[in-house]
């Protein structure tokens, strides 16, 4: 690959901006695409994203545009950082202009409603590319900490090891340490399901259930994630890594997590509508809890915590009633 490496990042929200900064700090030439001209202008003229990180000076090698074709031109990596449920429609519009041979990179942690497809599957289908040209970046990566250049590790998952290594190099900085992994299914499931477990832990925190409840939900949440992963052909060890346990711990312990905060507000007694109204950014688990449950049912896998989250978030079940039901299920061995 000739240098400098060029990247197009679609999405000027929290993670698109933060990961664009990582790529720029790693030496890439980066163009962000966003819908709003005032944000693109502020990035280009003032080196700031006023809506998401008004206090962060962005690198000069990070530019922005509202023209998807301009962003796409010559990109070695085409990075997608928009809400999961909007991917199919957006990518269909962008696909004809993507640079030939570009590697498509998903930063998204969700599962598509209706189809129960992972984001890399949607990308392969809509862009018509081989799985070898699709990668995923995931792990414990709260955007607010990353733009502060606070240290974090991540996983770059790609079926093609060489492509994974190229992306790993393209986003490796003194504060961002990516590891490669070829288990794309496991890495994507880890990212999507941790948002659902993050909601559950947030609800428990909001109800004041204590740290034993948190430890129990994290551990049993990881158990149900792993069960689903095994049924889908993932490597169970992936869930003990950054994409599984690492992200779960960061999300379930941080007030910076939108999913955790969303759950906390519900647990404190806010209604769903009130909680949505105070949530300014994407909390993927709110929609993906339904598609994860759909995926589990398609694979015949029991996911009681996910089921409980769906019942509270989408069926209006009071958290205390849901808690009693979760705790009084029939007793069983820890591993089965
Ligand atoms: N923020 C984080 O810390 C973080 C870290 C890792 C992964 N992620 C994942 O990255 C993805 C994006 O999340 P985010 O945090 O950047 O969300 P965000 O809400 O901060 O930003 C989303 C961006 O997408 C744009 N957008 C919204 N609807 C759109 C549509 N219909 N069409 C085109 N653009 C649209 C918004 O304007 C915004 O620029 C999610 O899947 C999330 O789980 C986020
Ligand atoms: O703010 P959340 O809950 O979307 O979590 C952000 C990242 O996924 C943490 O790794």
UniProtKB/TrEMBL annotation:
Residues 183-322 form the Glycerol-3-phosphate dehydrogenase NAD-dependent C-terminal domain. The active site is at 194 (proton acceptor). The keyword Chaperone does not apply. It is found in: Cytoplasm. PROSITE patterns: NAD_G3PDH (PS00957). Its main location: cytoplasm. It catalyses: sn-glycerol 3-phosphate + NAD(+) = dihydroxyacetone phosphate + NADH + H(+); sn-glycerol 3-phosphate + NADP(+) = dihydroxyacetone phosphate + NADPH + H(+). Pathway: Membrane lipid metabolism; glycerophospholipid metabolism. Its EC number is 1.1.1.94. NADPH binds at residues 14-15, 35-36, 52, 109, 143, 258, 284. Residues 8-162 form the Glycerol-3-phosphate dehydrogenase NAD-dependent N-terminal domain. InterPro entries: 6-PGluconate_DH-like_C_sf, 6PGD_dom2, G3P_DH_NAD-dep, G3P_DH_NAD-dep_C, G3P_DH_NAD-dep_N, NAD(P)-bd_dom_sf. Sn-glycerol 3-phosphate binds at residues 109, 139, 194, 247, 257-259. Keywords: Cytoplasm, Lipid biosynthesis, Lipid metabolism, NAD, NADP, Nucleotide-binding, Oxidoreductase, Phospholipid biosynthesis, Phospholipid metabolism. Belongs to the NAD-dependent glycerol-3-phosphate dehydrogenase family. Catalyzes the reduction of the glycolytic intermediate dihydroxyacetone phosphate (DHAP) to sn-glycerol 3-phosphate (G3P), the key precursor for phospholipid synthesis. NCBIfam families: PRK00094.1-2 (NF000940), PRK00094.1-4 (NF000942). HAMAP family: NAD_Glyc3P_dehydrog (MF_00394). This is Glycerol-3-phosphate dehydrogenase [NAD(P)+]. It comes from Streptomyces pyxinae. The lineage of its organism: Bacteria, Bacillati, Actinomycetota, Actinomycetes, Kitasatosporales.
């Amino acid at each position: 690959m000739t240098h400098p490496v060029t990247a197009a990042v679609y999405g000027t929200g929290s993670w698109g901006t933060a990961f664009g900064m990582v790529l720029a700090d790693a030496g890439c030439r980066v163009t962000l695409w966003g819908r709003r001209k005032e944000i693109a202008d502020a990035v280009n003229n003032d080196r700031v994203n006023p809506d998401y990180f008004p206090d962060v000076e962005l690198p000069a090698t990070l530019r922005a545009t509202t023209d998807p074709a301009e962003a796409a031109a010559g990109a070695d990596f085409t990075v997608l950082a928009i809400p999961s449920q909007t991917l199919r429609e957006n990518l269909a519009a962008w696909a004809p202009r993507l640079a030939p041979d570009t590697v498509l990179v998903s930063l998204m942690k969700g599962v598509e409603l209706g189809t129960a497809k992972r984001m890399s599957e949607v990308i392969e289908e809509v862009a018509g590319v081989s799985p070898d040209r699709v990668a995923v970046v995931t792990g414990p990566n709260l955007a607010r900490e990353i733009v502060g250049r606070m240290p974090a590790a991540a996983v770059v998952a790609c079926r093609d090891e060489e492509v994974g290594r190229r992306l790993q190099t393209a986003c490796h900085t003194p504060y961002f340490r990516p590891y490669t992994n070829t288990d794309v299914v496991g890495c994507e499931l880890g990212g999507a399901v941790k948002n659902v477990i993050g909601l559950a832990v947030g609800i428990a925190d909001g109800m004041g259930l204590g740290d034993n409840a948190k430890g129990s939900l994290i551990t049993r949440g990881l158990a149900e994630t792993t069960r689903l992963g095994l049924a889908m052909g993932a490597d169970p060890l992936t869930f003990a890594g950054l994409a599984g346990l690492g992200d779960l711990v960061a999300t379930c312990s941080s007030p910076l997590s939108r999913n955790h905060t969303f759950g906390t507000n519900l647990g404190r007694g806010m209604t769903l509508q009130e909680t949505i109204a105070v949530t300014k950014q994407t909390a993927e688990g709110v929609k993906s809890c339904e598609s994860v449950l759909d995926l589990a049912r398609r694979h015949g896998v029991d996911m009681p915590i996910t089921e409980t989250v769906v019942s509270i978030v989408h069926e209006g079940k009071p958290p205390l009633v849901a808690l009693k039901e979760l705790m009084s299920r029939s007793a069983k061995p820890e591993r089965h």
